[in-house]
Amino acid sequence: MRTLTESNVMYGTRRAFTLIELLVVLAIITILVSITLPAVGKARESARRTKCMVNLKSIGTSLQMYMDQEGKGMLPKVRPLNEGSNENDPSLLDVMRKYTDAAMPFRETPDSDWTVPEPWRCPSDMDSGDAANNNKPLWQITGTSYEYTPAFVMVAAEVLTIRNVQHGVSKAFENFNPALPVIIDADDWHNLRFQTDRRGDLAADVIWDRNAVFYGDWRAAKSPYFGEQDIARLVMDTIRFGGGLGG
Fold first, then answer.
1. How far is CA 114 from CA 79, 148, 166, 184, 207, in A?
2. Is the pLDDT of residue 89 over 80?
3. Going by C-beta distance under 8 Å and a sequence separation of 6 or more, which residues neighbour residue 88?
4. Which residues contact 172 (CB under 8 A, 6 or more apart)?
5. Residues in a beta bridge with 223
6. Strand partners, 146
7. pLDDT digit string (tens) for 185-213?
8. For residue 53, is pLDDT > 80?
9. What is the pTM of this model?
10. Rounded Cα gap, residues 247 and 239, in angstroms
11. Is 140 within 8 Å of 127 (Cβ atoms)?
12. 119 pLDDT above the threshold of 70
């Protein structure tokens, strides 16, 4: 006479999981998921960061072409990218149209969101944290994920009535060591921890984690943080190379 166990083996039947065994399996799956998901998230962000670097390098190459052909070695005198443009005061996007093969950002109507092709859109720019604009990506709100840093110095130079703003800023960037970022991420979206904190309204400190393309060799890399002393030095150099303050 066969036992119950022998019968199960012969006829291919299996006993059901016990509750304890099921709980053990679920616990193992939970542990594996908790280990795997952060690694997957980091790998995806690494890929997005690499694509952002490629975008910045492309913009830097176009900017160098402008300086060589039309700018006479000087940086474009334009408004900050995220401030938009007008007929009398263009933005960098307007200047770059002639020097890039890529399509340019555009709006269907003045009130519609921007349609932004590469290289003007960072793949990590997915949440601006701007509640007034439903937390839409920054590129969708302003037309680009990036910012043109010399524009801020030029605005400050105009306020100080420096005689030759464009020449002063361009020479200050050229002579600054270490090299300064010219095009930079407009926000810190590459830091996953910062994104998590910001969306939970828990962020107390700004975490600087931006990509940039640098003046001179137009390399794309992670940008260091430039503090008040660096900014003061840049302004003083702009005054010196720009011919001093106007009367």
1. 18, 18, 29, 19, 27
2. no
3. none
4. 153, 234, 237, 238, 240, 241
5. 210
6. 185
7. 999 888 755 454 444 444 444 567 899 99
8. yes
9. 0.77
10. 13
11. no
12. yes
| Secondary structure in 3-state letters for the chain | CCCHHHHHHHHCCCCCCCHHHHHHHHHHHHHHHHHHHHHHHHHHHHHHHHHHHHHHHHHHHHHHHHHHHCCCCCCCCCECHHHCCECCECEHHHHHHHHCCCCCCEECCCCCCEECCCCCCCCCCCCCCCHHHCCCCHHHHHCCCEEEHHHHHHHHHHHCCECCHHHHHHHHHHHCCCCCEEEEECCCCCCHHHHHHHHCCCCCCCCCCEEEEECCCCCEEEECCCCHHHHHHHHHHHHHHCCCECC
Domain boundaries, the chain: 16-241
Nearest 10 degrees: Cα torsion 25, 31, 32, 35: 180
Chain CA centroid to CA 27, Å: 38
What value does the mean pLDDT of the chain take? 82
Tokens representing 120?
A: 């003007």
Tokens at residue 218, please? 């137009």
